[in-house]
Structure formats: C-alpha cells, structure tokens
Write a structure and sequence with these properties.
mainly alpha; 4 helices; globular
Length: 89
C-alpha cells in the first residue's frame, strides 16, 4: 500500500486540471509510482519537473552513454536501486 495515495483527476482543483492533464499525457504509458504519486498532488510542479527531466535527459550536451554512466554511478554511490529501463547501449 502506498504511503501517499494516488490522486485522481476528480480530486484536483479545477484550475490545476490542465496541468494535471498535460502531465498525465507526457507520462503516458509509464507508471505514476514513487515520486510521481506525490507530484500528482501538485500538477503544476509535476508538469514543470517533467519538462526539466525531459530537458536533462534528451537535450543535454552529454552523450546518451555518458548520461547513463552518470545515473548508474550516482545510484550506486547513494545505494539506490537502478532505475527501471536503464540500459547502456
């Protein structure tokens, strides 16, 4: 059972529904678990953090292999489980 329950669109304030919808569309097909279950309670913040994540992941000047190596190294240093789908080519 999640410590923070998942929020539904019906529970979001009317003025935040466009941000909620945009975030859910951007995350289509991916589970909204872990930190995403918390972010869904704050749709505007979720939308902005998703944009930052996409920028860092897809538009950064580092090569894809170097980005993956950094993520693996940080996860190891912090004794974190590796992110699902993390694969070095």
């Amino acid at each position: 059972m999640a410590r923070i329950p998942l929020v539904t669109r019906d529970q979001i304030a009317e003025h935040e529904k466009p941000a909620y919808d945009a975030f859910m569309l951007a995350r289509a097909g991916r589970p909204n678990i872990g930190p995403y279950s918390l972010l869904l309670h704050m749709p505007e913040l979720a939308q902005r953090l998703e944009a930052l994540r996409l920028y860092l992941r897809d538009e950064a000047s580092l090569s894809q292999k170097l980005q993956e190596l950094v993520m693996i190294s940080v996860a190891r240093e912090m004794s974190l489980p590796l992110a699902a789908g993390l694969v070095l080519s």
